[in-house]
Amino acid sequence: MAKTRVVNIRKETCDVYIGRAGHGKDGYFGNPFRLETTMARGSTLDRYRKYFYHRLGTDDEFRKRIGKLQGKTLGCFCKPNPCHGDIIKEYLDRLTENADEVVIGQIHWKGCAYPVREIDTSNRIFRVSVESLRDEMINDMRNGIYETMEACEEIDGYCTDEELCTLSDAELYKMYC
């Protein structure tokens, strides 16, 4: 499969536009964080990275559409400067390197869906979720919501949104279980 690339749409043609909506473009993959005039180039990328991996873990449609970008030339106005497309490309490159399919399910707590991965070790199934769920449960335990204890026992480990979306089952198991 061809390597995913990110290009400046003013200088090269692209297969998929990943910038914001406008000028007849839909902007589905655009960075929702705008660069203010006082901000340095690339300063929104940390926020975008968190947003991107959280959305991968919680939005099935987004995850499917991102997966279809693999091997394509992605176009944005930012390149060659730091661009949110670099984060998308980085994720897609990891998918290419990692032969294991990353299957993300959901666990519900207090009306919110959190991403969860099940790792089958042939002896037992381990469940790994994200740190934001752990933090919510710790807060509930402090506030005396006792059903939290039972729910906590369903999860064997916690990680970041990015780790949940990119690490292989073996890597997750080794780190968190």
UniProtKB/TrEMBL annotation:
Residues 5-90 form the DUF4326 domain. InterPro entries: DUF4326. This is DUF4326 domain-containing protein. It comes from Bacteroides uniformis. It comes from the Bacteria.
